[in-house]
Amino acid sequence: MPRGIVSSISGDEGGGFIAVRRCRVPRAKGARLRKNSSPTLDIITRRIISQTMNGRLSILLLASLIALGSIIAGCTDTSDATSASSAPPTVQTPPDDAGNVTAGNTRFAFDLYRQIASAPAYTGKNIFFSPYSISSALAITYEGARGTTADEIRSVLHLPANETLRRTGFAGIDADLARGDENYTLRTANALWAEKAYPFLPEYIALAERWYGANTTNLDFAKNPEGSRATINRWVERETEDRIRDLLPPGSIDSMTRLVITNAIYFKGTWAMQFDANQTKEEEFRVAPDKTVRIPMMRQTDEDARYPYAETDTLQVLELPYAHGDGAGLSMLVLLPKGDNLTAAEEVLNAGEIAALQGSLVRKRVNVFFPKFRLETEYSLPEALAAMGMPTAFSPDADFSGMDGTKDLFISGVVHKAFVDVNEEGTEAAAATGVVIGLTSARPDSTPIFRADHPFVFLITEKDSGTILFAGRVVNPVGP
What we know:
- The structure is a single chain.
- This protein is an alpha+beta fold.
- It has a single domain (about 15-475), classed as Antithrombin, Chain I, domain 2.
- About 25% of the residues lie in helices and about 30% in strands.
- The chain is built from 10 helices and 21 strands.
- The strands form 3 sheets. Strands 3, 4, 5, 11, 12, 13, 14, 20 and 21 form a 9-stranded antiparallel β-sheet that branches.
- β20 and β21 (about 465-475) form a beta hairpin.
- α2 (about 130-140) runs antiparallel to α3 (about 145-155).
- The protein is elongated and about 65 Å long.
């Protein structure tokens, strides 16, 4: 049954997993991967975003090459598995292919952000996640779904119905992310972890490896669930530079688990124009009109402080680019309400309005005041995903016969963790997702002032494709 969303802010980690469990008649002893099936399942997608605030920050990770983060702030005066190098096949991806997957990932990112933000447990809380990590893991899960189960997953993720468009789209994005750049680190990986005695269809294992770079590792879930959990968690830690730890919590894997699909994403980049740490001062951040907290506020106010900037009647919009060479350009887009109402930023979280805001940016002198922050979040997503329109995958009626030829499997858990650290040098961000499958049972000056001293929203994106890699909001830099 779907579980509630669970979030925590703790330490330096982020990630997620999807677990699939079998729900009906157990397989006979000695069952094993069918002939021609791959013995290895192992890629996890990594994304990293930097955060330095310990407050109520909400960030949404989108499923694409862009990291999106949102913080509400005020403005005045204007072994176990193979490495990510086991990449999917090289494909010449037409722009429309990646574009369709990117567009779907963007819609999913904003849908999930709204779902989390509307949950009573997250009222006034920070949010941060990687939509791309979640959608990558669920896309691999979708490849094994059939019937109503598949239709619902595709609808929630906004996946292209055309399988060639879908698969080349994800493969193309992953290949672009893997190209790297001398000025930043950005990588992602997927992996499959299969019960060694369970007969998965070889075509499913091969498809996951070819198009999603997800190799398969066989584990003994039936007799050693805790050891298997530790193995998967170690892989996630390696892929995220130890920023995401214990992705799979105790009890998430048991003897009925048959498959775990993981994705990990990691990012570390420096600002194109770094902040001077000597200029960082402790200042007040308004978490509410009548409440403030003390936080370290970075500043960039010299004559060289020129940034892409725009504003509307209700928002200030600032783009903070990351340094890059020949690789894709990455940036953080910050949406800062002119007042203390975060709704002004959250109501424009849709592809059309974000694109319009980005198109209106003009490079100019801006006096920037931006908080350091660091966030760690954790989410259990079955309830949210079911509410968004895919309940069947979590029920006894689930059909994942594309994985094993039976209707004995269902998703028993979807876990996601994320980490972000934003400081004077740049940003570090990471996230991981696990899908567990088992058996049932004020008026601006001529030089605008961008003072993020109240809640704001931010996005981390890949500029060429517009993919949102991370998304979030900061309500209280030093709160939960």
